[in-house]
């Protein structure tokens, strides 16, 4: 099996052509022709993960976040990019395509929260003529839940070390979910009259504005709302390439600590 075959399969799950303008998804390091016998699947490519891949002899890393995102002006041995090139390890990064695709991270969030089958759930923020592709999903519940109850559900579903939330002051019957950094989507929920949103990286002023508008906002964290895709990708890749050793590195862990 080759890097190119893995890329082509991922392209069927979350087409790279759908990536947002600011993004840098795709085969970022390495050659399509490289033979692959062991693949690491992770959220971020850190030096710890590169160390582990070197030790176990992985030829490819599939990550969600791009290992090359901002402009690179220099490279040295503290950079995972430098380390990957030196070690001959390829990197495929599937970022915003996986955020937006059906079966992608927002659908996984929706399912883990017990909202039912996400397949036909409305997209919160479509950026394509195809309204079925975009950031976030909306759940219209057949029950009511409090802000505290929804925050607890999110904490448990995503194994969060903690959640930060503001109470919109009313029972919740509609909920948007958006993986990663969904600060701007808070305002979309306010405009659309959605009762609550579960996302990550919410700024102080968005909490204030949502509170004033009667919208519950639950910040479950960037890491917790996105790392959930790693096991899903591992399962999909293992089913597609059963002869290949596909693993989640021990080093695929949140680097921030909580007190």
Task: Describe the sheet with the most strands.
Answer: 6 strands, mixed
Looking at the overall shape, the CATH architecture of the largest domain is 3-Layer(aba) Sandwich
User: Low-confidence parts, pLDDT < 50 over ≥5 residues?
Assistant: none
Integer count of domains: 2
In terms of quaternary structure, the protein is single chain
Specify the structural class: alpha/beta
The CATH class of the largest domain turns out to be Alpha Beta
Describe this structure in words.
The protein is of the alpha/beta class. It folds into 2 domains: 3-98, 3-Layer(aba) Sandwich (Udp-n-acetylmuramoylalanyl-d-glutamate--2,6- Diaminopimelate Ligase, Chain: A, domain 1), CATH 3.40.1390; 102-225, NIF3 (NGG1p interacting factor 3)-like (Udp-n-acetylmuramoylalanyl-d-glutamate--2,6- Diaminopimelate Ligase, Chain: A, domain 1, 3-Layer(aba) Sandwich). The protein is built from 10 helices and 11 strands. The chain has helices at 3-13, 47-56, 80-87, 96-100, 105-112, 147-157, 183-192, 204-213, 222-226, 228-240; strands spanning 26-29, 38-42, 60-63, 90-93, 123-126, 134-145, 164-166, 172-181, 196-200, 216-219, 245-247. The chain has a 6-stranded mixed β-sheet. Strands 1-4-3-2-11 form a 5-stranded mixed β-sheet, sandwiched between helices. It is elongated. It starts with a helix and ends in a 12-residue tail after the last strand.
Attribute tags:
5-stranded mixed beta sheet, 6-stranded mixed beta sheet, Udp-n-acetylmuramoylalanyl-d-glutamate--2,6- Diaminopimelate Ligase, Chain: A, domain 1, alpha/beta, 2 domains, single chain, 259 residues
